[in-house]
Amino acid sequence: DVKVTQSSRYLVKRTGEKVFLECVQDMDHENMFWYRQDPGLGLRLIYFSYDVKMKEKGDIPEGYSVSREKKERFSLILESASTNQTSMYLCASSLGGANTEAFFGQGTRLTVV
Amino acid sequence: RKEVEQDPGPFNVPEGATVAFNCTYSNSASQSFFWYRQDCRKEPKLLMSVYSSGNEDGRFTAQLNRASQYISLLIRDSKLSDSATYLCAVIRYGNNRLAFGKGNQVVVIP
After folding, report:
1. Contact A107/A9 with Cβ under 8 angstroms?
2. What is the DSSP letter of A7?
3. Which residue is closest to B95 within chain A, CA to CA?
4. What phi and psi, each to the nearest 5 degrees, are found at residue A62?
5. B22-31: per-residue pLDDT in tens?
6. Would you state the pLDDT for residue A100?
7. Separation of alpha carbons A17 and A21, rounded Å
8. Which chain B residue is nearest to residue A59, measuring alpha carbons?
9. B46 touches chain A (CB under 8 A)
10. CA-to-CA distance for A33 and A23, rounded, in angstroms?
């Protein structure tokens, strides 16, 4: 069974902290994605990766970085968390190429106080 | 202009009725198109891919209009269980960037 696992369902961090959100997939997928989802704004792409150590900026990369040292793991890093980064973060993976289904993790609700 | 645009709604639909909505995309190099379904407090899941010739899956029909750069989703004989947010998604030629619209919220009313 296909599985994308995010390390935490809920997370509370303080302003200025460095935050790591981890995502692991067990499907040997090439592509991995990080989105944030906010009411009224939909799913916005932060970063994606199409191969190990490769990354591309999405629509809203400011304040974030990513790491993909192994194929199955894609980490999102908030260098210095701010209150406007309070959001639902969703990780996804897909096999690659056109017409491939993306599978999502269950999401991490991050609150920055 | 956003890459993928949807009217978020909500769309209040009587049970048994038909509802249709569109999603427009701005980049003519968009290659692949999808509809995802997201239930409240859950992650999105693929509902169906959208093919150039259009495709149907039970009560759901998806169509692609490349000339006008939009895709559509039609739900016939709406069920209460169809209440969800329907997200359209596109992938561009040449890369694997998967972009989503804001979603169409559908509420089926008894």
Report:
1. yes
2. S
3. A97
4. -60, 130
5. 999 988 777 8
6. 82
7. 13
8. B99
9. yes
10. 9
